[in-house]
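Incident log, support desk, overnight shift.

02:14 A customer reports that sequence design results differ from what the structure should imply. Their input is reproduced verbatim below. On-call engineer (initials T.W.) acknowledged and began investigating.
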């Protein structure tokens, strides 16, 4: 089952592999949340709060992603400065 697209390429009809992977990840995320709903207490510096375990994991994931972006930005900026000095 191939259909001809406007650009002349033949393509498959049906669900793309990306959609299938996203559905699997979504179902996995729902299962993760349902299995990690018990609350835990967190103490960090002067902060003290109680939250479900899945919320704590989500916060840690977001902090990790933000740190990754910050380090990438810093490395690109450092490399650009080194290239500017070399010129």
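02:41 Re-run completed on a clean worker. Output:
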């Amino acid at each position: 089952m191939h259909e001809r697209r406007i650009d002349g390429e033949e393509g498959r009809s049906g669900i793309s592999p990306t959609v299938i992977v996203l559905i699997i990840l979504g179902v996995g995320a729902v299962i993760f949340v349902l299995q990690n709903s018990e609350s835990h207490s967190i103490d960090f510096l002067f902060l003290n709060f109680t939250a479900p375990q899945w919320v704590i994991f989500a916060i840690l994931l977001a902090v990790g992603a933000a740190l990754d972006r910050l380090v990438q930005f810093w490395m690109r900026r450092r490399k650009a400065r080194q290239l500017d000095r070399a010129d």
